[in-house]
Amino acid sequence: MKKIFVLFNLILLFNFQYTVLADEGMWLPFLIGEKTYQKMVKKGLKLTKEQIYSANQSSLKDAVIIFGGGCTGEIVSSKGLIFTNHHCGYDAIAKVSTVEHNYLKNGFWAKNINEEIHVPDLTVQFLERIKDVTDKVQVELKNIDASKTIEELPKILNKIAQNELTETEKNTNCEARVVPMFSGNQYILFVYKRYKDVRLVGTPSESLGKFGGDTDNWEWPRHTADFSIFRVYADKNGQPADYSPDNIPLTPKYVIPVSIKGIKENSYAMTLGFPGGTNRFETSYGVKLKTSIENPYTVELRDIRLKNMMEEMKKSEAVKLKLASYYARVANYWKFFDGENKQLLKYKVLEQKQNDEQKFIEWAKQNNKAEYVNLMNEFQQCFDRWTPYSKAKVYFQEGILGSQLLSYTYRILSMLNLSKEEIIKNKEKYLAVIKELNEQIDLPSDKKNAAVLLKKYKDDIHEQFVPQSVYTSFLKDNSATEMLYQNYINNIYENTILLKPDVFAKWFENPDKSILEKDPAIQLVNAFYQIYTTKILPEFNKFQNCNFLLQQKYQKGLLEMNKGKKEFYPDANFTMRLSYGIVKSYSPKDAVLYKEVCTLKGVLEKYKPGDYEFDLPQNFVETAQKKDFGKYADKQLNDIVVTYITTNDITGGNSGSPVLNGKGELIGLAFDGNYEALSHKIHFDAQYNRTICVDIRYILWIIEKIGKADNIIKELKISA
User: Fold this and answer.
1) Is 87 annotated in the active site?
2) Which domains does the chain have, with CATH numbers?
3) Over the stretch 566-590, which tens digit does the pLDDT of each residue have?
């Protein structure tokens, strides 16, 4: 308890963000201040802080997990049943699907444990403990040159993390990660236990789980059944183990009960999850870079890729299945970056940041804080040095590596620096990369993307960042046609060893690197990579280091400026966070009111038979039209509430987070934000910010009435 108390004081010391508005905040649940807790109680919370997070006994936090590599899930039964979003389970569902057994298209419902499907490489992590290690990190940092901070910091954090693991933790598949808080003013150790046997239990069809597709993504109203169901298994001792038929469902420390009493406007709503990242301390210089270069060009380059993929996906069910997961990842953040840019400009966030920075400098001058007076000038110099390189970086990552072949080729480049013995030693790793490439690539769309993006790089990027040898090899002059580019790319795809898995595997019998060095795909990517590593990456590393150290100083100054005024929270960094709010409608523009709920009636209104985004399974349509709602109907609306919106503050990584009522009962899953507030990573908008949640009653109705999986319903602890 003493360690927790010390950590609590440190967090209060560094809680120095700007004034928190409305329901803003992604709070560390183990360190919720009294003022914040009382606000939660006033809105409807009935739990104590210890019931939410306890270091010494089971609590709500023990039922909230990291699902896969970037989502949240929750334990909802005493047999290790997991609820998460459909888009979080998407990769896993696709991985165990085939054309003959297409669980993405048709859905899947295990009627007993024996029917559940193991998903290779899918894991979940439970948070075990936390510890402040700031002093240890700072001691290590004193021994390095400040200009090497960004380079050396990961090594230092990893070293401390490994040293902090106990022998018991090492023997029970525990992992430790030290995470910077407040731009390195504080460092906290998080220990997780990873379970490696996770199985698919149930999923609605893609037409339900992705209902609305890209059209409705990030939008409200929304009618998506964004959920999927898994189960975590352990060995007979309850410890993590590799997949085995002998493994048994995990008995969890805590199970979240389910409530079907429903929600209404102003109902209390709380989330626990793992938001991936925010940057709300960003300066005006960072906002300018993002809105003028990073976001616009990322959107433009992704748009090209998506259109070419969609053209092929519409032609074939097999291609659609092959590209489904990859397309979804590209599309999701294509729309996010587009929306973020528009909202940052619309709400004049740049100007708001400039105003805040001017106040900070005036405070520094008035209080004789000499170390902060020129801080903004230092920021400007840091960004000015980097900006000429930033567009080329975006084009390399989103353009050249926007092709699947060239992206996987980039992962193979490291072989060029290995000895023959090292290549043979790493044979299985590289064979796995090539196997994955050939399973996932769609050649027609990828060839189009590679050709168009190669031409766009030449047309748009300053010549100092262009590998001229690539272009002079097939261009006679600068008026080259698209056909010349396409022919050049087609030749690469036809002759690269990377698209011939059998030939690549045989090459390992006598791994002659000269063959790789002459491979056309490797030559192409390596030409761009050499420019990236010699001209762009060194400048980016300098910029990162410079920006990190300036941010550290800036936030230290903000601490002094705001000392004792408010309880604040650190930026999200994929550590467990709590957000609180209420169910709430909003008005996005004049004369328009968005209600707080969407219903099954709205699903049927959007239904378009045979449409790529708005089709529905026939049994779903028939059941909905008969109004066979069972016990899941909303009594006031006489309909099924499908989704609802809350004022909670979340971001990517929160997907799949449990939405809880004041008693800590599950009332839904968070799965998206609204378009009007896509500036939320940098700027929280108290008026428009909404979290979109799938209602637990809709989830249960689909499980019972559409999936006919009463066995799942019976596992849950449901209060009506």
Assistant:
1) yes
2) 1-123+196-274+570-662+686-720 (2.40.10.120), 284-557 (no CATH)
3) 777 899 999 999 999 999 999 999 9
